[in-house]
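Convert to structure. Protein one:
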Amino acid sequence: MNYPTIDPVIFSIGPVSIRWYGLAYVVAFATCFLLGQYRIKKFGNEWTLAQWGDVVFFGTIGTLVGGRLGYVLFYEFSRTLEDPLWIFRIWEGGMSFHGGLLGVFVALLLWSRQHKIHFFKIADFVAPLVSIGIGFGRLGNFANTELPGRATESFLGVHFPCHAVYQLNPTCIGEFEPFTRHVSSLYQAFTTGVIVFLVVWIYSAKPRPLGSVCGLFLALYGMGRFGTEFFREPDVGLGFILGDWMTMGQLLSLPLIVFGILLMTPVVTRHIQPKSNS
């Protein structure tokens, strides 16, 4: 089976082009906003719907800035030195989840201090919503024919377009590669998007120790990303980071797994509880 031919541009109006990749991010942020509104109305919370709108705004800025800077620093630093303006062409793809996560953490930390709300109360509220956004982002990667998988003879494999793998396989001639690859973007959309979202959403439906919902999300995302990286080609220019098997995505996921598990341990959850004024 051949990789489906998808024009990355949905439509153009003059010099302005609407792309699937950009639409995926818009849908992701809108979905997170609506799901957050639903949670506030159903479960109640310590801030208003207007404040939730502020949280989403801060989180959006943190995601975009952190995600782009993370991609530049972790994956494409040399390309940015050659073409500095490339860093602003987000519509061409190139966002790092790990960088975006750091950006969101910084944004939420600033917001929590401004409004004097415990950081982990906000993080626990936001954590169940993040995965669905990740899923939409991976669908954007799919539309852009990004994240080529490793070669496979499995029935799940597809023939990638030559233009999508020319850096990995310069000998590719014609429209499609002669062998098949895993569609790693869809694997990650399903695991770190759908599955992690469902588990964390269900877990957060009941009161949990402070920090544990955020911890569960970090641990599950890290594990899902670590596992699915085995089906994804290492990034061009980086290759394997450790030996002949660990990728940059796996290396960056290890701290998430460790930190997530720590946040769920009783000793840590007790330590981060708000201090009583009595």
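Protein two, convert as well:
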Amino acid sequence: MRKIYTNVVIAACAIGAQAQSITSLDALLQRVESDNSAVRASAMAIEVNEQQERVARSAWLPDLNASVQLSYLGDGTILDRDFTNPTRDPLPHFSNTFTASLYQPVFTGGAITGGVDLAKSQTSLSRADYRQTLADKRFQVAQCYLNLFKCHNLISVYDQNIALTEQLLEQMNARRAQGVVLKNDITRYELRLSSLRYDRLTLTNSVATLSHDLRVLCGLDEEQEILPDSAILDTPLPCDGSAHWLAIARGQSPLLQINTSQIDILEARDKIDRAERFPKVGVIAGDNLGGPVTFEIPAIDKNYNAWWVGVNITYNLSSLYKTNKKTRLNRIERQQLRASRESIDDDLSQRIDASYTMYIQSQEMILTELKNVELATENYRVVENRFNNQLALLTDMLDASTARLDAETRLVNARINTLLYFYQLKYISGTL
């Protein structure tokens, strides 16, 4: 049986002999993280939110302002109350002003803390979104890779069937020249040959499409060819049960983490909204240096300095009738997200159960196909022996060979299907 398996693998990879190199699926999955454009954009979103988190923390730092003003003062004019008897008031023409102020928040009712929590939750959301994007692209790569393996395997089967059909046509044409075979028999196999070549062309186009998709997903050069590695068929396949996969999904699924982060964001916004009901308290200090002194008549050509320090208290009175509506809306949105979390959990349970069922079924199919390969190989051996003893026709040899090749192809495809369901389970559970 190991010899049959080895022959199948060799046949599956024969079509890629001209490729530049054999590429493993693990290598492509690793390239997705660094070379896929959507994944890179999602990673940059994490950097943006991390910087926003640092900005939110800086709200605890004091606000410092300073300004310097230099200007030219024109002479003043003194008028009576009825705007008559103007008198010129000469002023020093050079004016300078320097102002510095400080504000240090002391109590904000939780607004700054809520802003920091909001930024943290947005960062967590971007990380969960990144994991989901990465998993999506990796699963697409796995699907393309395994389907590409199937296509290469089928092309090798078609090549051998085409070669056998061409050999059969040569012998039938030779027999027709002897008057032993009718034209209708030759036409029937010419139609078969034409159909085989068309089906092979369809597979070749599928290989080109899948290879292009893989190059785009993995950021590879357009001229780089991809030949699936047959070693993937040796991937160990665990049978831990659907409950095991569901438990992993509930702890690792990016979809659940996204939902959790969205709830955290709403809770942080609720904290910010509730902070509006409290007064904002801060320490203020400042200094003002300016000249000339123009509040005296005549003006004094000197600098005047004044400083201050105190407590600033502000209160938004509109929060008394606006905040309740915001908090009520926020509570309803959180309830909606919690309800959707239950829906996500149910969906994960259904998807894992369906995928695990197909995963086990595909493993049972492998055992069936192994038996079919054994039977097809035995049938081919018997027909070949009869043909060598001139007890069977070439058409019998063609049918027996086709049956063996089809059985070997179904065996490899069954293994690939099992791998596909395995990667699907990893994708749904958030471990891909």
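Residues 161 and 402 are 7 Å apart (CA to CA). The mean pLDDT is 86.
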